[in-house]
Amino acid sequence: MSVALKRRAAEAAFAFIEPGMRLGLGTGSTAAEFVDLLGARVAAGLDVVGVPTSARTFAQATALGIRLTTLEETPDLDLTVDGADEIGPNLALIKGGGGALLREKIVAASSAGMVVIADASKTVAELGAFPLPIEVVPFGFASTLRRLERLVAELGLTADLRLRPGPASDPYLTDGGHWIVDASFRRIPDPSRLATALDATVGVVEHGLFLGFATAAVVARDDGVEVLRP
Ligand SMILES: O=C[C@H](O)[C@H](O)[C@H](O)COP(=O)(O)O
């Protein structure tokens, strides 16, 4: 997972960018490379406006002088550029390793297209080796966790509350004030079925399965960049 490959994917994503676009700006180390490069292009005169998917991306884009807006002001976006934790068949994604899945999904859903940028280590034949982030409301957490555990118990798997790094063992808090459960499925043979089950689980705000969102993936390898389509 080299920084050079992330940067190469981020650079190649500019083939999809046109002046005047309304952009969704993703979150994570790969998306940060794109925002960094976008800052340089904006400084050189590119006119775009962005909606950030996290407080982190908001801070980065603001520091770089990228013009920002909100979905309240600009509810329809042209393109979102974002990273992913896994890219599976048909460009089904797992996202949320960095905790930004809810805003990322809202922004992606508001965009006409979504370009995923990644190094080749993110492409998989089947989703699920990366634990699936599930965003839950803190109220009634024990009850929600029981429902989630029942869902994953059929598969003999675990669902763990994500904690903040450090000794305090406090729950990790998302930008929306929610908690995250990481569910280790190992294999998700039917992402659509799992997404439907999670959508129907009371207490779950959103999950990291992004199905039908990505319109292209720019995957960087040592020997070049490949563009995948669904
Ligand atoms: O919540 C975080 C996002 O979904 C990220 O896009 C994802 O975790 C990939 O991050 P990275 O580019 O750092 O591997």
UniProtKB/TrEMBL annotation:
<feature type="binding site">
    <location>
        <position position="122"/>
    </location>
    <ligand>
        <name>substrate</name>
    </ligand>
</feature>
<dbReference type="InterPro" id="IPR037171">
    <property type="entry name" value="NagB/RpiA_transferase-like"/>
</dbReference>
<dbReference type="InterPro" id="IPR050262">
    <property type="entry name" value="Ribose-5P_isomerase"/>
</dbReference>
<comment type="function">
    <text>Catalyzes the reversible conversion of ribose-5-phosphate to ribulose 5-phosphate.</text>
</comment>
<dbReference type="Pfam" id="PF06026">
    <property type="entry name" value="Rib_5-P_isom_A"/>
</dbReference>
<comment type="similarity">
    <text>Belongs to the ribose 5-phosphate isomerase family.</text>
</comment>
<feature type="active site" description="Proton acceptor">
    <location>
        <position position="104"/>
    </location>
</feature>
<protein>
    <recommendedName>
        <fullName>Ribose-5-phosphate isomerase A</fullName>
        <ecNumber>5.3.1.6</ecNumber>
    </recommendedName>
</protein>
<dbReference type="InterPro" id="IPR020672">
    <property type="entry name" value="Ribose5P_isomerase_typA_subgr"/>
</dbReference>
<comment type="pathway">
    <text>Carbohydrate degradation; pentose phosphate pathway; D-ribose 5-phosphate from D-ribulose 5-phosphate (non-oxidative stage): step 1/1.</text>
</comment>
<dbReference type="InterPro" id="IPR004788">
    <property type="entry name" value="Ribose5P_isomerase_type_A"/>
</dbReference>
<keyword id="KW-0413">Isomerase</keyword>
<feature type="binding site">
    <location>
        <begin position="95"/>
        <end position="98"/>
    </location>
    <ligand>
        <name>substrate</name>
    </ligand>
</feature>
<dbReference type="GO" id="GO:0009052">
    <property type="term" value="P:pentose-phosphate shunt, non-oxidative branch"/>
</dbReference>
<feature type="binding site">
    <location>
        <begin position="27"/>
        <end position="30"/>
    </location>
    <ligand>
        <name>substrate</name>
    </ligand>
</feature>
<feature type="binding site">
    <location>
        <begin position="82"/>
        <end position="85"/>
    </location>
    <ligand>
        <name>substrate</name>
    </ligand>
</feature>
<dbReference type="GO" id="GO:0004751">
    <property type="term" value="F:ribose-5-phosphate isomerase activity"/>
</dbReference>
<comment type="subunit">
    <text>Homodimer.</text>
</comment>
